[in-house]
From TrEMBL, chain A:
PROSITE patterns from the UniProt entry: CYTC (PS51007)
Pfam families: Cytochrom_C
Designated name of the protein: Cytochrome c
Keywords annotated in UniProt: Heme, Iron, Metal-binding, Signal
Molecular-function GO terms, alphabetical: electron transfer activity; heme binding; metal ion binding
Species: Phaeobacter italicus
Signal sequence interval, chain numbering: 1-19
Taxonomic path: Bacteria, Pseudomonadati, Pseudomonadota, Alphaproteobacteria, Rhodobacterales
Superkingdom assignment: Bacteria
Gene3D superfamilies per record: Cytochrome c-like domain
Residues of the Cytochrome c domain: 44-156
Amino acid sequence: MKHISLTLAACLVGTVALAGETAPKEVVYDEYGAVETSLSGVAGDAASGALLVGDKSKGNCVACHQVSALADVPFHGEIGPSLDGAADRWNEAELRGLVANAKKTFEGTMMPAFYKVDGYIRPGDAYTGKAGAEPLPPILTAQEIEDVVAFLATLKED
Amino acid sequence: MNNKAITAIAMALALPVAAYAEADDDTLVVNEEIEMVTKAAAPAHLADTLDEVMSGWHFRSDETQALQMDDFDNPAMVFVDQAMDTWTTVEGSAEKSCASCHDDVEDSMAGVRAVYPKWNEAAGEVRTLAMQINDCRENQMGAEKWKYTGGKMSAMEALISVQSRGMPVNVAIDGPVQSTWEQGKELYYTRTGQLELSCANCHEDNYGNMIRADHLSQGQINGFPVYRLKNTKLNTAHARFKGCVRDTRAETYSPGSAEFVALELYVASRGNGLSVEAPSVRN
C-alpha cells in the first residue's frame, strides 16, 4: 500500500514511469520526429482521445486546430492546420511524435510539446502564474497521449 | 531526402500562412469628433516583420466597437469621472492634490500619455505613467503609493490618457532608453512556460486568427487602460501582460517589475503612429 501510493505520487510529479511506460525523458524520436513505441504499452482509446482533444484543461488541441469530427465542441482555432485527414498524412508513430513533442517534427513550431517536463524558460505551476519546479508534470500522461493518437488515427478522408 | 522529410517541409512552408489579418475596415471616430488612426504604416524598427500596425479595436465585434465610439456609451468614462474628483482631492502630508501642481488636467496632461514610458533624467530611469503617478504621490504629496494595477491607478491613467486621445503614440526607443527597449524586445520574443509561447507567436505571427474563442489582435497598448466587459473594470497593460504570460503556463513577472516596464516600452513602440485611444473597450 505504502509502496503503491509512493509510486503514484511519483507519477503525479511526472518523474517515474509506470511499468511498461516510457518516461518523458526516455522517449526515442527518430530523425523525423516519429516515436515508434507506445508510450504506455496499453492500446489507446479513441473515444477518450476525442474528449482530451476538445477539453480545455487537457489537450485543448481545438484551441489551435479545426476538427470536423468534433463539431459539437464549440470554437475551433485557426493557428494550426485542420486535423481532418491527419491519419492520411501521418502514420501512428509520426502522430505519436507530433503529440509528444511536435518540435522534433517541425522545428520551432508554435505547437506545444505535450510530453515534455523540463528545459523551459520560467516554467510555471500550470495556469497559476506561480513558479513551477522542473521536472513539471507533462501536460498529458503517457496513456492520454496514446488515447489522443488513437483518436487522430481515425481522422481519415480518403 | 526521403518522402517524409519532403512532406514535413512542405507542410511547414505551406500551412501556417503568414498572418493574414482579418481586421475589419471600420473607422473609429469618437464622439463624432476625434478621428482615430487605427491602422498605420509599421514603425521603422518593425520593417522586417510587419507592414501595418493595427489597433485592437479592429479585432472586436461591432457591438464592442460601438461602445468606444461615444463617451456616453463607454463604460470606462465612469472611472475617468472618478479620477477627475481625485485630481483635485488634497491628500498626504504636503496637503496637495494633483491640481496643486498641474492645474487643469486638460492643459497640463495633453500629449503626456502619447510619449510614455519615457526617460526621466533626474531619476536616471525609464518611467511608466504609473511610476510617475506614484512618484508624485510619494515625493510631491507625501501620500501613499497606489497599487500598480489597482482601481485608483487605472482610473488616473485613464483620465491622463483621455487628454491625448487622437494624438499619435510616439515613444522614444533610442538614447538613454535604448537598452531597456532592447530588453523589452528580447522579452517579447522569448518563448516562456510549458507551452513555450512568446508574445510574437500569438500577436505577430497569428493576429487575425482565432485561438479557440478569441480573435487574436496585435496586442497593442494604445488603448490602455481598457475597460473589459468580462471583468467590468479598467485593466492596465501590466495586468494584461501578466495574464498573457500566465496563459503560457509560465511564472509571470510582477506588474511594475523592471521586466514589465521594459516590455511596456517595447510594446508601446510597436504602436508608434497609432492614435492614443484610451480608455478603450474590450470583451
